[in-house]
């Protein structure tokens, strides 16, 4: 039967990360692996979803109010004038918005630049569309953009640059200067920019999220994708959107309609309530996540990690294994699950390109801190339980 499978599907094999995820489940490990919250969603949003279900909003649906509200937020947050009637597509999460964007813009053989390490799904979507991912390495410890290397990655076939800021897995927020370099390159090379801004409201230490589209001459060539998932702790509700120049938005909509037709109706109604949350909601979201970030950094430092890059946003710490721990990221996570009962994600799955320093690929582990205090405290206790007399994890 395998020979009946498409080449594209055969290129997507199950990874060591998935196997470790099964191991974590079998061991009942505390989950600091996956980027979904384990605390409740805000009550006002849940009430709106329940009301929508009780009102029998059960059919295919487009809630224009979401687009109207997003247009207001684009203006308030980024100074962007967006046509609410024509420039948004409501999708099943950022994931569908991104996939539909790639299908709407990438032809066979088109090259798409990705910053490496990267969230895993970009590469797969590009390959499924027949495009060619081209990886541009970010340089540790601060995951800096090397503008020279970036510029050298462009060819006459480069169609788009994908930018995820705040960034999964590193927690980097791209600086204004880096964004300016990316914008200048996109304009000079006449490329599209596709942004993933799902962590737009989760930034720390006075860092401000800047949308690439807000830089001069960028709105006309940028497709913004984002979602409710992270901002409102609703990863399973599958509401996201693409915001793009009208012609591109219309192409994305045509693809979205053929793939899923509409995002879940009751949750679209609730999305409107979510997006209309008062400013205090967004303020406390940041403060609570900043406290969780600090907790996890302390927790890791207490067991021997030296965190050289404090996340500036997102819900992840991408921690380098201390030099004297002579294990790979996969071996480390396996032992962490089996001995400490705590699950994290080996960093290797986020690196896609040829990196100068091959050690990098196997020396990072990603810890998610989108977890309630009970979970984080339990994880810290479990790690402490296997600390040896050196004060470091006894692996
Ligand atoms: C960078 C990034 N983009 C997108 C997603 C998925 O977003 P959604 O749930 O809206 O599909 C995730 C989830 O972990 C993510 O980390």
From TrEMBL:
Q: What is the name of this protein?
A: (wild Malaysian banana) hypothetical protein
* Superkingdom of the source species: Eukaryota
What InterPro entries does its record include?
Answer: Aminotransferase_I/II_large, Kynurenine-oxoglutarate_AT, NHTrfase_class1_PyrdxlP-BS, PyrdxlP-dep_Trfase, PyrdxlP-dep_Trfase_major, PyrdxlP-dep_Trfase_small
- Keywords of this protein's UniProt record, alphabetized? Aminotransferase, Pyridoxal phosphate, Transferase
Q: Which Pfam families match?
A: Aminotran_1_2
Where's the Aminotransferase class I/classII large domain?
A: 30-369
Q: Which family does it belong to?
A: Belongs to the class-I pyridoxal-phosphate-dependent aminotransferase family.
Q: Which cofactor is essential here?
A: pyridoxal 5'-phosphate
GO MF terms listed in the record are:
kynurenine-oxoglutarate transaminase activity; pyridoxal phosphate binding
Q: Please give the GO cellular component terms listed in this UniProt entry.
A: cytoplasm
